[in-house]
Write a structure and sequence with these properties.
Layout: H1 6-9, E1 17-19, H2 27-45, E2 61-65, H3 72-84, E3 103-109, H4 118-129, H5 137-150, H6 156-162, H7 175-189, H8 196-202, H9 204-212, H10 219-222, H11 227-232, H12 237-252, E4 261-267, H13 279-290, E5 295-300, E6 336-338, H14 344-354, E7 355-357, E8 360-361, H15 365-375, H16 379-396, H17 410-417, H18 422-431, H19 439-446, H20 452-457, E9 463-465, E10 473-475, H21 477-485, H22 496-514, H23 519-535, H24 543-552, H25 574-587, H26 593-606, H27 615-628, H28 631-644, H29 649-662, H30 666-673, H31 682-692, H32 696-712, H33 716-730, H34 735-749, H35 755-768, H36 776-790, H37 793-810, H38 813-825, H39 833-841, H40 860-881
Parallel strand pairs: 2-5, 2-6, 3-4, 4-5
Antiparallel strand pairs: 1-7, 7-8, 9-10
Helix pairs in contact: 4-12, 5-7, 5-12, 7-8, 12-13, 14-15, 15-16, 18-19, 19-22, 22-23, 23-24, 23-25, 25-26, 26-27, 27-28, 28-29, 29-30, 29-31, 30-31, 31-32, 31-33, 32-33, 33-34, 33-35, 34-35, 35-36, 35-37, 36-37, 37-38, 37-39, 37-40
Length: about 900
Amino acid sequence: MSRSDLRALFRSNDRELKAVDFFADRRDEWATVAAAIAGHTRRVRQPGFDVEDLEAPRRNALVFYGVGGIGKSTLSRGLAEHLADPAARAGDWPPLNPMVCPVLPVRVDLSNESGADFESLILAMRLAVSELGQPMPAFDLAFQRYWERNHPGEPVDEYLRRRTWFSRFPGVGSLPEQMQSALADVAQVVAMPGTAGSVVGQSVGAIVRALREHRQNVRALAECRRLADLLEAEPDLDALSYYAHLLAWDLSRLPEKKRATLVVLLDTFEDVGDRVHRDLERLIQRVVWLMPNALFIITGRNRIQWDDPKLEGQLDWVGQACWPFLVGGATDEPRQHTVGYLSAADCETYLCQRLTIAGRPLMDDRTRHLITANSHGLPLYLDLAVMRFLDLYRRNDRVPAPGEFNLDFPALVARTFRDLTPDVRRVLRAVSLLDSFSTELATAAAGLDHDAPALDLVERPFVDVDPGAPWRYQLHGLIRDAVREADDTSEDRWSDADWKRAAGRAFLALGREAAGADRARLVAALRQGLRLARDYELDLGWLADAAFSYVDDFVWEPIELPAGEAGRVAEGSPAEALAMTLSAIAQRQREHRSRTAIRLRLVLEGGQLPDQLLELPRYFLAECDRDLGNFDASLDGMRQVADAGGRLAPTAARGLVHLARRVGRFERVRTAVESLGPEGRADRARGDLWWTQGNIGPACSAYAAGRDEALDLDQPGEAALSQACLAFAAAFQDRPRAAEQIARAEQMLGGVSIRWADLQTSIASLVRDAGVGADLPQRAEDTVVRACEAGLTSSLAYIRLAVCLHFLVLGESVALAGARAQLRECVQGEEFAYLAELSYLMAGEEPPNDLPRAQWLDGQAAVQARWVAIVEDRRREAAASRGE
């Protein structure tokens, strides 16, 4: 049932405009409430249920919590309406199960603005119960004594009439009469003359004696074991909270046909108290505990903490033993639930039905889609956007354009900050600078010397938790954006200088986290640190070491900076240059090497990187040039990096060795390998050298040594690369062993991203099946396509060599000639000429005169003999596989 939205209705003179207070679908929440009421009713109806058992665990609190503006109060009001009148929201929610006994809902808004206090809560519950038309003698007797002591000379009925807050409760007219009737009955049974008031005011002692002696005339009341003690207690606010036990007892004594389930909805529970002052919360918790036959539906911003044993002393009943359903991870109802954000479909429905003209949505599709995307499912944002839409519509006499809604609202910040202490607000602002954070990061970024504000913040519902993330906490996106961009109206708002100081603190804290961190945390620190350095013009500092650590592992997670904030980010900053460098290096595993080369040249030409970081783009540009066949450019770049003596100098020295091998300068390679050392991956370089000479055993041993060393140093990328090379070398000589090595390579490459190694493993499969696999030529062409897409000239040359081996083993001379011609296409000058030469040596043939000759380590004849033996072995294997 939709009612007029008065705020919207009074913002426009347009008589055709229809504005309704649309209720967003909360079917899951209603289903939870219905299940909780059904389960609660079954429990209290069981024969063993005892309302006076004060030690049994309580299972009568259902909690919905969530960020400000998520729709908790709307949900609470909707629940109260539907429980009181199932037809009120029949279009949204189904009715309760008919097997559930009648329900008595009472809703109390505990916000500071509502004017409700603890006494009002107790009166509201008694007013709700009065609808049953049944006496509540135990409660009324104690309550009347409290009332006369604390409201002398003021009758209850007059008090209720004067306070309009109680006018919403239907029992206002009948409650005073019910109370007077109950007290008159007590006066009669104790045979005391006078009015009911005199019974309570002057004859408490006589009533208590009658109760304690279990006289026949008060036997019914005497069965309430704690009534006498409560009547003797000082009738103050503390005693009033215990009177809830009497009301629960009275409800339990009603005839079966008169019974109903009291459902108490407590809204805005965050205003009840805080971590220091829990006096009101203690009274309310006492009521919940003492009324186990009533169901309490609590809505607020924060998860209630009654399951925390550390609160012992602040609250009466705490811990899992007392509240088993309120602990984290509980699955039975009633328990604690986060109020979810609206789905995109729900947001669209809300915006379509909230404002209409002639039955059609006033907002166009593009505007609705933009508002829905910006809202992140937060109803408050939708409501604020609707109000802005109406203001613009009225002011400009037209439907607003979508671009007029690409903004945040200061009201979101105000609602978020409303119940936060200054220190918690300080932490919230600081962590809005971060994509994710820990309590330690939050405290450091805020510049505090104690963690309590950060610990308070992470328990707020607008902080999401991901236990598997490098830092487990993350602000909800809309709240984060609003704090960053709309924090202009709060009294303690930050200046630009405040934000920069916080960014500097967060940046340094991230650097401490990145030092010696695992891969996931290193990458997360890099991403966040680069953005902070760019947005706030910070020195790169620890980012340099982190960048070199990033490139060491061959994993290549994307490093992409999001768009900067308008007016804040300087074009061409060092942080942007470093981010572009790392992004290009990582993307080379997913794109053609020529694109990577272009991006790295742009970084070098931009001149923004500090000197100590120039070797990063310079080395990887040289690597791209090598893969693209730009031999001279690659040689020049590798020499520059090696001569500079920086972090990548050993890697560049290996790159020079690699280039020397490409042109067949094997003597130079052997000499240089000895000076590479572990940092220069000397074992892998030895393996590269030995397989070309036909020394497959030593090559495999060298690759295996490089792999094992990398594993010992926790370098999975280098280990996988060495394993791929080992699989390739083993494939020439030992097919069964090669199958095992290929499988291991594929497994190890699953956790890293090395495109060349992926291709090398595929080429190893071709070499292993040369002369055996009938489909090898087609598989080779498929692999050629992948190599060309990546711009990897070496992979292309190795594929052509594998095809030559295949036709050589089969003895198909015509096909072999064609394969050699394709291999010759890969030869540029001396580069890869040694592979074309090998295609003749392994056949026992003399290479053509126009083919540049390699400098074989122990002479052409020895190399030729070893390769001829490899081919002969393969022919025998191929014949055996064909059964010849």
